[in-house]
Amino acid sequence: MSCWLLPTRMTSLCDADGKGNVRKEELYRACAVLKVPLEQVKFLDHPDLQIITFDNYGVSGHCNHRDVHDGVRRLLYDGSQKDIEAWELVSTNIVRKYSGPLDVWFSHFYAILSGGGTMCLLNEHTQKSFLAMAQHSSQWVWFRKLFVAFSSYTYVNTLRKIG
């Protein structure tokens, strides 16, 4: 499951493959591991959106991730959601994507050079990322375990404000 993490709350739309209830419980367990208060967890259930995810490339280029990005932008720009502050995870190239903690420096410089509206988030507790992802048992398959181990996204994330 992919989650859209906002500074004050975690929001997710997660009924892909009809596993909405399973993924909802998984997200609650992951939030508990990460100590995100449950009152700050919000689930959006909209028939035209299935996953809230990253930027227009969707980290892996997955068509659902890209489509959801477009849906979120439309939701934000239709004027009905004025109180939502949305951020998108900046996708990186393949070398940076699998450079693990080495990408911390590149991400930091990218955020500085990009100016306002971009922030670099350093994960100081990478073990919690593994524990949180393990709560998503429906998706915690061997290749995702490798991804979490070697992905720079486990160690650092660059977010860009939408809008």
From TrEMBL:
Task: Identify the EC number(s).
Answer: 3.5.1.89
**What GO cellular-component annotations does this UniProt entry give?**
endoplasmic reticulum; membrane
Q: Which molecular-function annotations from GO does this UniProt entry contain? A: N-acetylglucosaminylphosphatidylinositol deacetylase activity
Q: Where does the source fall among the domains of life? A: Eukaryota
Entries under Gene3D superfamilies matching the protein: LmbE-like
Task: Check the record and name the InterPro entries matching this protein.
Answer: GlcNAc_PI_deacetylase-related (IPR003737), LmbE-like_dom_sf (IPR024078)
A single GO BP term for this record reads: GPI anchor biosynthetic process
Per the record, the similarity remark reads: Belongs to the PIGL family.
Q: What is this protein called?
A: N-acetylglucosaminylphosphatidylinositol deacetylase
